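Hi L.,

You mentioned the student needs an example of a multi-chain input paired with its predicted structure. This one should do, with 227 residues in total across all chains.
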Amino acid sequence: GQQLNQSPQSMFIQEGEDVSMNCTSSSIFNTWLWYKQDPGEGPVLLIALYKAGELTSNGRLTAQFGITRKDSFLNISASIPSDVGIYFCAGPRDTSGTYKYIFGTGTRLKVLA
Amino acid sequence: DGGITQSPKYLFRKEGQNVTLSCEQNLNHDAMYWYRQDPGQGLRLIYYSQIVNDFQKGDIAEGYSVSREKKESFPLTVTSAQKNPTAFYLCASSMVGVSYNEQFFGPGTRLTVL
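Structure written out for the whole complex:
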């Protein structure tokens, strides 16, 4: 079945550093979603990507839809302590229109002040 | 404000008891979903519904049941048949039939079985 692999699994960075993480799929996706989850809370949608090669920004966050349609990247510039959390990628299970998504296992980000 | 609400935030249950988790949305979304999240893991789909009075099993439906009598509401019952129910439960919703169908999540309910 479909799998989403996120890397790195966790990372510790210094405040002010840039962060890069990625997500790869075993099959082609037509949509990529990136979420952030704070401890004990529900995931919040950060960026949605719908076109191969698309580059979309949301403040200090930038995400790209890989040209192969099997990967996506999320970058955070000039990290701050509130960036700590778990970042998930998600893609649709299939093209049948059931709108089910598969989620990666997450990248856990910790920012050292 | 539009959004998804889940209640309660924390729930404790004794073994052998059924418990129902509430999920309500006022986003006018047709589709609603229930996920389970365990420590260090991603989200696993329990049930989903694309329209009122219809729902489908996800990957881990055993021991769970749902109903969808109203568009705004999608309650999840964790039955005594669920062997390991302690987890964080997340409800989500999305539009149907459009090109952009992002899923939006509620704040979650943490269920602990004593």
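You could point out the following to them. The radius of gyration of chain A is 14 Å. The interface with chain B takes residues 4, 31, 33, 35, 40-45, 48, 50, 88, 90, 97-101, 103-106 of chain A (CB under 8 Å).

Best wishes,
N.
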